[in-house]
Amino acid sequence: MDRNDQQAIGNLFEKLANVERQTPEPLSGNDRQRAGGGFLAGAAQTAMGVAGGVLLGNAIAGMFGGSEAQATEPAASLPDEAAADPAGDAGSDGGGDFGDIEF
Length: 103
Description:
With 103 residues, this protein is mainly α. The chain contains 5 helices and no strands. The chain has helices at 3-18, 29-34, 38-64, 68-71, 79-84. The mean pLDDT is 73.
């Protein structure tokens, strides 16, 4: 390292030592109240945002589609056809455990 490099490095550190640290202006009364809040304040804001989004989404979905109960009419019961259709109760569990089916 030559003399010019040493002098440049010395001047750099001298300038850094002479620079005063700048402090931010003190907060006014309104700014002090807004600053901070911590973890629970952030969590509460997030929870309110999520709840508001869900409510808004449900309201929009209600405007476009409504509920299924309002959109469809109840089916008329036909007891004669239900008795004639052996697979009419295919969704229910008769408890037979497929005993009547041969493999």
